[in-house]
Specification:
single chain, about 200 residues
């Protein structure tokens, strides 16, 4: 697949990614067509295939970009927090925070997860991307815990799995009942108990 580097390529990629996020959120991953993404972005199919081999590859580019932004957000907020204020509650709040545009990503990733459950090849690729994200998140969480004078009692990647499960499960309920449960509220309320239960003071 041709992937020549040109001055316009970063702009083309950005427009395709933005268009894909909108189309996937509106139509669902399965129903969305490459033509729909190209039309929304203002490009031809040729421009699409100059950058991506498939609709799945496009999703994973979105996945990696979203993961990088989330990790950078947590890292920056952590860097802005004084060590004396880095309590279990503060760490939990950093992990529980939900941005204003998270609903769109929740729709996209939930749709793709259902698609992946039905397609073993896609499931394997999603598992690989999830695993890389967990490793990076675990390293970030380890640094936060160390600064707070804590250490994990077990595998940090398992804690990350639990954090993701709580965040995503709670978000689903929030988006169904927005007037009852604000996004992030349930995770922020219960994550401190989870973090406290699986950590202990440094010796």
């Amino acid at each position: 697949m041709p992937r020549g580097t040109t001055k316009r390529r970063p702009q083309t990629l950005a427009r395709l990614l933005d268009a894909a996020l909108e189309v996937f959120a509106e139509s669902g991953f399965g129903a969305a067509r490459i033509e729909d993404v190209c039309r929304r972005a203002g490009y031809t199919r040729g421009a699409f295939y100059s950058n991506f081999s498939s609709k799945e590859e496009l999703f994973f580019a979105l996945f990696d970009a979203h993961a990088a932004r989330e990790l950078e957000r947590i890292a920056q907020l952590a860097a802005d927090t004084d060590d004396r204020d880095l309590s279990v509650a503060r760490i939990a709040a950093l992990l529980a925070h939900i941005g204003p545009n998270e609903r769109v990503w929740f729709l996209v990733t939930t749709e793709f997860t259902l698609y992946a459950i039905r397609n073993p090849g896609a499931a394997a690729r999603l598992a690989d991307h999830d695993a890389r994200l967990r490793e990076e998140a675990a390293a970030l969480l380890d640094a936060l815990l160390t600064r707070a004078g804590l250490r994990p009692r077990g595998d940090l990647t398992e804690l990350v799995r639990a954090v993701v499960a709580l965040r995503e499960g709670a978000l689903g309920q929030s988006y169904v009942e927005p007037d009852v449960l604000a996004p992030g509220a349930l995770a922020e309320r219960f994550l401190p108990f989870l973090v406290e239960a699986v950590t202990e003071p440094l010796p």
